[in-house]
Amino acid sequence: MFESLSDKIANVFEKLRSKGVITDEDLALTLREIRVALLEADVALPVVKKFTAEIKEKALGEKVVASVSPAQMIIKIVQDELVNLLRAEEGGALNLNVPAPAVILLCGLQGSGKTTSCNKLALLLGKEGKKVLMASLDVYRPAAMQQLAQLGKQSSIDTLEIIEKQAPKEITKRALREGKLGGYDVIILDTAGRGHLDDALMDELAEVQKIATPVETLLVADSLTGQDAVNVAQGFANAIGISGVILTRIDGDARGGAALSMKEQINVPIKFIGVGETPSAFQLFDPKRAAERILGMGDVVGLVEKAAEFVDQNEAEALAKKAKKGKIDFNDLLKQLSMVEKMGGASSLMSMIPGVGKVKKQIEAAGGMDNKAIARQKAIIQSMTLSERAKPELLNASRKRRIAMGAGASIQQVNQLIKQFKQMQTMMKKFGGMSKKGLMQKAKMLGIN
After folding, report:
1. Domains (ranges, CATH) in the chain?
2. 350: Cβ contacts below 8 Å, ≥ 6 apart
3. How far is Cα 221 from Cα 232, in angstroms, rounded to an integer?
4. pLDDT higher at 178 or 238
């Protein structure tokens, strides 16, 4: 997410940090490089012009030039302006403060991810204690209704019963009746899409809106389409009015043009982002956290939230005790790899840690971070016998050959995993035996605050 833009901005700031005093020429060059970085990220030209003008206005003057750390001052100004650029006036929270059931209408073009976003949003609301009913109004795309029903079954979210040959307006009325009778807090209507904006689509949406009177009309847009996503949002906003945007596939969007242009061009908040294919890879959009990611400051809050969701506290404590005694084995490593996989992969997690951009790239170049690498490492461990997993010292040359064949890996890859395991074992034993004071001192030595 935002990797390309983040790298370019990081390079700009690196040059600034090397200067004791920042001149007007330095500032002009910095703004020029930021402008180019934003344009290459597919941010709309009017947005870029306004953004850099705001930074220039706030950065000029004695206060910045005479500052103890002028580079930090400019970085702070850029961060604040990024937050302003990403945050709409209304904010990102859903408006559900209405008599139940509150209706949320999802709209968008075909292929934008409406149906999967419907299920992800329902899951998120379910975690907040809401009873949710999903209803598909897509009577055109083959098996669209069945797809939502299947997703609902997998996620234990209720879906409206499918009745063939009903029109969208009739399905809407039935969903409202079922929502009231069933005591649901929220009804999410998953509407049909089209390949492009047209009158038939808008007329149908307007009819459904009139019947459902939704508290939220959310556009689902694919962030990978860049400025096209903004143009689509503008079209829906003009035709039927939208209260917010769900940006999908943002984890694959290295540029970020859609996210950075949306608020300024249509003044509608990005309310949620899809950050992966799994049902849990969906989150409330936070402008401050997004700005920090762009500036290479990581997303520590997001990392903690992921850990809280996926890490079993009892298992973590048991592992800590084993680590302190230096007794971890390959079964423990297998559990850790599976957890990292569930949390989105090592690359996703590392991108949330402040200041690891360059390290992350080096590890990626070595092929040690992607989900394929994790899957291969798991296959190697799963090809070991139970005794080999528990006693790594048993792994001689012939056993390694058998494991490599069973996992479809090379002996070199098996040796590499064993080496990584031994390094982890040594490190965990070293840190596990430290007191809290010792850990703090070690962290300072490593530059961790």
Report:
1. 3-86 (1.20.120.140), 102-295 (3.40.50.300), 302-445 (1.10.260.30)
2. 356, 359, 360, 363, 369
3. 8
4. 178
